[in-house]
Design goal:
293 residues, alpha+beta, Glutaredoxin, Immunoglobulin-like
């Protein structure tokens, strides 16, 4: 029950809104966690894993102490859901902290084979992935429709220990890492501060689809303790973000680099979310907009 309540508390802020809606979401999350906690995932037979969707690789699902299952359906923006650079960072950090290498199992049910291959090559993601064209994995397990609940931490028997997407939610990432490594997040006991963006909106104007737009914003430490950026997330896979990793003293600022590589034409209006060691757990948000022709 303790683990169940912890997962609910971690996932609830993802859906935070008004109090009535919050109660409904809490009830919904509790039902999902109850349903999936300790449920055994069934894998199809004769799975084929490839690198960059071109070279078949000899890869078998290992019976390690823990493994992470990532299922991506064919609905919506694939690039937005994947966030491959963040997965690369998480995999590297996890394997450097865990007692043994943790398998990350990527299953893509996508109708756009070319898009998946483009994204893998663009982001240099050379890990084995399974293109599940017939959606066999989902048919065997009947995953939740919400992408938030399509990633699972599994034990050696392929039973669900926790669910939630760690690259989309810092609290979920901390939960996974604590379970795998047995250690608290390094940011858990960090001194808190306040911060603000020196520029809250970036307008790239009108530009051609072949152009790449870049900008740098500063996050100023307005509190009394060092400022540390924990994570930067974007709404679309077309936008990448990098950030300073070192702490900033009170009054100093950290830089966040934003790179927009358009995939489609038309207007875009999205938000870059900067999470840091905030006193009130509220991230800094910067609006990005423009028109691609």
């Amino acid at each position: 029950m303790k683990t169940l309540n912890l997962i609910i508390l971690v996932l609830l802020p993802i859906f935070f809104s008004c109090k009535n809606e919050q109660k409904e979401k809490e009830k919904h999350i509790a039902q999902l966690v109850n349903e999936w906690q300790a449920k055994q995932i069934v894998f199809p037979e004769n799975l084929i894993f490839t690198r960059y969707l071109t070279d078949t690789t000899d890869f078998l699902i290992p019976q390690s102490e823990y493994k992470v299952l990532i299922y991506v359906d064919s609905i919506g923006c694939t690039s937005c859901k994947l966030q491959l650079p963040k997965w690369k960072e998480l995999i590297e950090y996890t394997n450097s902290s865990a007692k043994e290498e943790v398998p990350f199992l990527f299953f893509f049910h996508s109708k756009d084979y070319k898009e998946i291959r483009y994204l893998l090559k663009r982001d240099g993601f050379d890990r084995p992935v399974c293109i599940d064209m017939d959606d066999r994995l989902n048919k065997l397990n009947n995953f939740p429709a919400d992408m938030t609940f399509q990633t699972f931490l599994l034990d050696k028997d392929n039973k669900v220990v926790a669910l939630g997407n760690p690259v989309h939610n810092t609290a979920v990432k901390d939960l996974y890492l604590k379970q795998i490594t047995g250690k608290e997040s390094p940011t858990k006991n960090m001194l808190k501060t306040t911060a603000e963006a020196t520029q809250t909106e970036i307008d790239f104007g009108t530009f051609n689809k072949s152009e790449i737009k870049q900008a740098t914003i500063e996050i100023k430490n307005t509190g009394d303790n060092p400022l540390v950026i924990v994570d930067v997330s974007t709404m679309c896979g077309c936008t990448e973000a990098t950030y300073d990793k070192q702490p900033a003293k009170p009054g100093e600022a950290l830089r966040v680099g934003i790179k927009m590589t358009p995939k489609d034409t038309g207007f875009f209006d999205e938000v870059v979310t900067v999470k840091y060691n905030s006193m009130n757990n509220q991230p800094v948000k910067v609006k990005i907009k423009g028109n691609v022709r």
